[in-house]
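ok trying this again, last paste got cut off
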Amino acid sequence: MQKWALVTLIAYAILVAASDLNPLSSDTDSNGMSDSWELHCGFDPILFVKTEDYEACMCQGANLDRVEPVNFADFVIFAQDWQNSCGTVERCGERDINQSGTVDFDDLAILSGHWLSSCSQ
């Protein structure tokens, strides 16, 4: 097992066992990305350590229509829930790109950061 994967598993176990926080909506390092999203992308929610798959995961998150490249069609999908507090991932779906519970500027930064990028691996 790679070292970062072990650190991520330990961090997740601490989040679940040591508090009454909901790990699906908490943001331990206060960077605007939910802990569950960071774990999904191979990003450590406590130590803020990027892995090699992190940028690819962010790009795929921004590609909302799953058609290359990230463009205005993705923005139209994204804008449907602009500034909505979702509460759960299911309510806003993938439009809450970082799964923080709100479709906000952090999500827009991810989308615009990958504008006209092809995200397929």
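PB: full thing came through this time. The CA atoms of residues 42 and 51 lie 6 Å apart.
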